[in-house]
Amino acid sequence: MESEVSAVRYMCCDEYRSCLAKESGEYVPYDVNGQYGHLFNIIEERYKDNTVSRSLTLQKQINRYAPIHLEPDDSNLDVTIGPYETYEDGLFSYKATFEAFVGIRDDTATSQVKLFGDQLQDLERNLPMDNIFKSDSVSAAPIRVINLLYNSGDVKGPQTIAFNLPNDERIVNERGTSMVMLKNISEANFKHILKPIADACIRVEQKEYVNFEPYYTHIVCHECCHGIGPHSITLPSGKKSTVRLELQEFHSALEEAKADIVGLWALNFLIKKGLLPKSLSQSMYVSFLAGCFRSIRFGLEEAHGKGQALQFTGCMTKGLLSYTQMENSQLTLRRLRML
C-alpha cells in the first residue's frame, strides 16, 4: 500500500478544484473518512518526514561548508566563484548573480601593492567625515595581482579590471575583504581604450601625464576604498541596517562613485605621508579624467557608467574642468587639489 502512496501526484488545491469543475475522469475525489481515508494519513506523514529530512540535510551541508575560510596566499592559482555582484538587479539591488574568475598570481606585482592593504585602518581613521561613521576594526585587506586566464557567468559587457569581495556586510565586518587585480586586463584596457581616449579628449600639454602607473595605482586605491567608509549603520529609529539595504537601487552607482573619489583622496593622503612618489600628484588626476570617458561609455544604466557621470557632472559644476572648443574639442584639468 505504501508503494502506491509513493506514486501519488501532488497538486495544489486550485488545480484540484479546476479538475473537478471540468468533471475530468482522470481525477477522482476521495473522502478523507471514506474507504481510502487512511491513505491521507500516510501521505501527510511522508510529506512531514521528507520536509524534515531535507531540512536536516541542508543544515548539515551548511554546517559543513559555510564556516570554511580559504587562505589563498600560498596558491599560485587564484579562483573566485560565487554570487557576489548585484548590478543586474534594477529593483532594489539585492539579488546577486554568479560569476567566476580564474587566474595565475603575479608574485612580484602582488608584493608591490601590499602597501595599500596595510594602510586601510589609517585611511579609515582619516576619512573626511564624522567620526561616528568610522570603524576602528578595518582588517588589512590582502591584495592579489593576477593574470586572468578565464572568466564566466555575469561578466558580459564592460570587462572587470579588478574586484573587491565579498559585498556582504556581515562577512566584511567579521573577516574583511579581499582584492584581486587583473593586471593583463588592465594593461590591455589602458593600451587599447584609455590611451586612445586620452589622445582624443585631453589637452596636448597634459597628455604626458596619462600613463599606466597612475592609472593602475588609482585602480588599486579604488578597490581598497570599497572596503572603507560606512557599511553597517544604525538608523535614527535605532534599527540596525546597512548602507546597501537603505540605498537600494542607487547603491551600486553611488558606491562606484565613492570608491573613485575617495580613491583619489587616499592617493593624495599616501603621497603626503611619503608612501607614494610625488610624481603621482598631477598624473593621477589627469589619468582619472581620461578614465571618466572610458567608464561613461558603459551607459547610464550600468553602475560604473552612472557613477562616473555623477562625478564628471560634479567636476564640471565646481569648475574643475575647462572645455576648449577647437577643431578637436578637448578638456583641460584646471584645479587639482579641489578633488
Nutshell version of this structure?
It contains 13 helices and nine strands. With 339 residues, it is an alpha+beta fold. A hairpin with a 5-residue loop joins β6 and β7.
SS field, number of helical segments: 13
Order of helices and strands: HHHEEHHHEEHEHHEEHHHHEE
The neighbouring-strand order within the major sheet is: 1-2-3-5-4
Radius of gyration (CA) equals 27 Å
- List the domain count as a whole number: 2
Q: Mean pLDDT across all residues, rounded? A: 79
**End-to-end Cα distance:** 78 Å
Poorly predicted runs are 1-8, 335-339
In what range is the share of β-strand residues?
A: 5-15%
GO cellular component, one term: cytoplasm
Protein name: Nudix hydrolase 3
Pfam families: Peptidase_M49 (PF03571)
GO molecular function: dipeptidyl-peptidase activity; metal ion binding
Layout: helices, strands, pairs:
Elements: H1 2-5, H2 13-21, H3 37-65, E1 77-83, E2 98-105, H4 107-112, H5 114-118, H6 120-125, E3 143-153, E4 162-165, H7 169-175, E5 178-182, H8 183-201, H9 212-226, E6 232-234, E7 240-242, H10 243-247, H11 251-272, H12 280-296, H13 303-317, E8 321-324, E9 330-333
Parallel strand pairs: 3-5
Antiparallel strand pairs: 1-2, 2-3, 4-5, 6-7, 8-9
